[in-house]
Amino acid sequence: MKIVFATNNKNKLTEIRKILEPQLEIVSLSDIGCEADIPETADTLEGNALLKARYIADQYHLACFADDTGLEVEALNGAPGVHSARFDDTTDHDSEANMRKLLHELNGKDNRRARFRTVIAFIPASHDTDSDSSPLLFEGMINGLIAREKHGIGGFGYDPIFIPNGYDKTFAELGTDIKNRISHRALAVRKLADHLLHHFH
């Protein structure tokens, strides 16, 4: 079964393919020739995931899913949250600038508690007559701490400064095998996979 993952983020694509293939074939936006910059204007992770999934379902009539992920830091009242990719608003998706800003805002704060949250919205293909084409939401979450400085070169986004509970290394140091077992995205994807493999096999 072929499913569109509404992203062109190669890191996310690789991560998700490792978890879902070979049972399911995952194709990206560029694979289906979608050049659109799908707006992420909602004020929640759920809202953004739904916007992206609905766009693909409406335009291409293919089964698809989209995710939105936020890093929610307790001492910053849940920020950056839905704005995680553009936390440093002078840049766009610049991970280094985002991490610099976050570490700066936490400077001198002892409460380093944070959580990563991923929400996946899945919409079945509209021509699947035996399936309801209303969207389904799957959530994954992992608690941890924000490090005082960056560690490790693996991963992407905030991985070099996020230490998951139960570990003493950041996601960037732990490597993809461990991250793909425990991460917020992995947990949400596993729920999606359980649903898909149960319904389509």
From TrEMBL:
Example of a GO cellular component annotation carried by this entry: cytosol
Active site positions, chain numbering: 68 (proton acceptor)
Binding site for substrate: 7-12, 69, 156-159, 179, 184-185
Keywords, ordered alphabetically: Hydrolase, Magnesium, Metal-binding, Nucleotide metabolism, Nucleotide-binding
Enzyme class, broadest EC rank: hydrolase
Bound cofactor: record note: Binds 1 Mg(2+) ion per subunit.
InterPro entries: dITP/XTP_pyrophosphatase (IPR020922), ITPase-like_fam (IPR029001), RdgB/HAM1 (IPR002637)
Catalytic activity: dITP + H2O = dIMP + diphosphate + H(+); ITP + H2O = IMP + diphosphate + H(+); XTP + H2O = XMP + diphosphate + H(+)
Pfam family, one: Ham1p_like
Binding of Mg(2+), residues: 68
Family membership: Belongs to the HAM1 NTPase family.
Free-text function comment from the UniProt entry: Pyrophosphatase that catalyzes the hydrolysis of nucleoside triphosphates to their monophosphate derivatives, with a high preference for the non-canonical purine nucleotides XTP (xanthosine triphosphate), dITP (deoxyinosine triphosphate) and ITP. Seems to function as a house-cleaning enzyme that removes non-canonical purine nucleotides from the nucleotide pool, thus preventing their incorporation into DNA/RNA and avoiding chromosomal lesions.
NCBIfam families registered for this protein in UniProt: PRK14823.1, RdgB/HAM1 family non-canonical purine NTP pyrophosphatase
HAMAP family associated with the record: Non_canon_purine_NTPase (MF_01405)
Protein name (Swiss-Prot/TrEMBL): dITP/XTP pyrophosphatase
Organism of origin: Hoylesella marshii DSM 16973 = JCM 13450
